[in-house]
Amino acid sequence: MSCAESIAKLLADAHFSCCFSKVCPSALDCAEPIVVTEGAFSRGSRLAEEERGSVVVAVLVVRKVSADAESVAVAAEMAVRRADWEPYADADNYRIVGIDTSAPAFKERDSSGRYVWAFDVSCAVVRSL
Fold first, then answer.
1. Do residues 33 and 18 make contact, with C-beta atoms less than 8 angstroms apart?
2. What is the C-alpha to C-alpha distance for residues 86 and 55, in angstroms, rounded to an integer?
3. Which residue has better confidence, 125 or 129?
4. 80-91, pLDDT tens digit by residue?
């Protein structure tokens, strides 16, 4: 499970529906998804047996109404920020040891006219060598 999959699972367990971490669905497949994407690993330090760094995960909340997108994004960010990370710490080659979130903000209107609100989750991770 990747960091994005861990966050998508946390959101699904917190009763947010239609969370996707592997694909970005079209408006025909899912009208109001939450899409979770993962950035590249950025090394902060390297030790003999492990390296520590961060992975930024973007959470995009797509809704037909801007106010709905905003309220769901705020609630999702709060759920991630307040979560107990122990059940979601194992993420493939990484172990999540801490998180920090940005405040949700309007990102864009997509090609189908839906509103997209987004926030980032900066995951502090450890990777075994």
1. yes
2. 17
3. 125
4. 999 888 888 887
